[in-house]
Specification:
The chain has about 350 residues and is an alpha/beta fold. Among the domains are: about 60-95 and about 180-240, no CATH class; about 250-345, no CATH class. The chain is built from 14 helices and 7 strands. A hairpin with a 7-residue loop joins strand 4 (about 185-190) and strand 5 (about 195-205). Helix 1 runs antiparallel to helix 2 and helix 10 (about 265-280) packs across helix 12.
């Protein structure tokens, strides 16, 4: 995927102007035009100095039909460590989600959720929260003791207790199924304890490597979706052609944010937010989900950029809001997100 435009035409124009200034092409304006045309012809794609960039691979109608039938899409993700290919599908949560293991250890949890180890200073907010919880528990125990000493309970109080229990049961009901992202991931054993696993994203540096893995017998979390056996049997490297919407350049996000508001790339940042929300959910990265959750500073940035891209009347006010967002703070927050995702990648081939 080409990321930079060729500046050869501009160089040619500049070179011709310089020679005109130096008197090297002062015979006539007609001779200058002929000379310029010759240089442009020499550096055209048909000349000897053709561009080294490989032409972009286009998706054929046959490839589109293959992925539409399977309801799976190839995805290209560029990270600081390289560019890789993977697969993503969207399915209802009740068909693909797995229950968390009951014997989860701190290594299973995100760093932001784990308990402090012995001798490690606890976070002040966590300490205060545990203190409040302890005080609340003591208060509840005290009320229970007082209620147990009261032998004459009114029927009205009993009815209210039953209603409270019914409300609690309703709150405990399972949420409605929703559409969730599923990537080509697997449970990777941790180095400290092989018995404990954490989810990792499988990224392949070449389409051939991705196709070869899918055709193999190795397990992944996409095994549970329907039509996966068909994808496994028919996929080839020629099928691994991500659409423009499924190409994400996370390696450029931090650099772009540090350059300042005037050059922020709305499409780059909006697409980064979309794929990182999906990856945060698929990889069970709570810190990533929290950083991009509704109402967070990065979510506000995303909303402002979308309003600007819309071109509606609200775009003017969105640009004013954009000026109030700190570029360095946004860059640091995104650097943390990309770092979390990078450590959860399992590079193949």
């Amino acid at each position: 995927m080409a990321r930079h435009r060729s500046d050869k035409s501009e160089d040619v124009l500049d070179g011709a102007d310089d020679r005109a200034d130096e008197g090297l092409a002062s015979d006539s304006a007609e001779e200058l035009d002929d000379d310029l045309d010759d240089q442009l012809d020499d550096e055209s794609p048909d000349g000897d100095d053709e561009d080294d960039e490989e032409p972009a691979v286009r998706r054929s109608a046959k490839i589109d039909a293959f992925w539409e039938k399977a309801r799976v899409d190839p995805v290209e993700i560029a990270l600081p460590s390289g560019v890789g290919y993977t697969l993503r599908a969207y399915r209802m949560s009740d068909t693909v989600e797995e229950d968390e293991p009951e014997d989860a250890t701190p290594a299973d949890l995100d760093d932001s959720d784990r308990e402090p180890a012995d001798g490690e200073p606890a976070d002040e907010d966590d300490s205060a929260g545990r203190a409040k919880e302890s005080a609340a528990s003591s208060s509840r125990r005290k009320r229970i003791d007082e209620d147990s000493d009261d032998e004459d309970l009114d029927e009205e109080d009993l009815d209210e207790s039953d209603e409270d229990l019914d409300e609690d049961e309703e709150e405990d009901e399972e949420p409605e199924p929703e559409e969730v992202p599923v990537f080509l991931t697997w449970d990777r054993p941790t180095e400290s304890n092989p018995a404990v696993t954490r989810r990792a994203l499988l990224l392949f540096r070449t389409p051939d490597g991705l196709a070869e893995f899918v055709r193999s017998d190795e397990a992944s979390h996409l095994d549970v979706i329907e039509d996966w056996d068909t994808v496994r049997a028919e996929i080839t490297a020629d099928h691994v052609v991500p659409s423009d919407e499924d190409q994400y350049e996370l390696d450029l996000v931090v650099k772009n944010l540090r350059e300042g508001h005037d050059v922020w790339d709305s499409e780059l940042l909006i697409k980064a937010g979309e794929v990182c929300r999906d990856l945060g959910h698929a990889l069970r990265l709570d810190s990533v989900m929290n950083a991009l959750s509704t109402g967070s500073p990065l979510d506000e940035l995303d909303e402002v950029l979308r309003n600007i891209e819309s071109g509606r009347i609200g775009a003017f006010f969105a640009r004013r809001r954009l000026r109030r967002i700190g570029s360095q703070q946004a860059a640091l927050a995104w650097r943390s997100i990309i770092g979390k995702i990078s450590t959860s990648v399992d590079w193949r081939d």
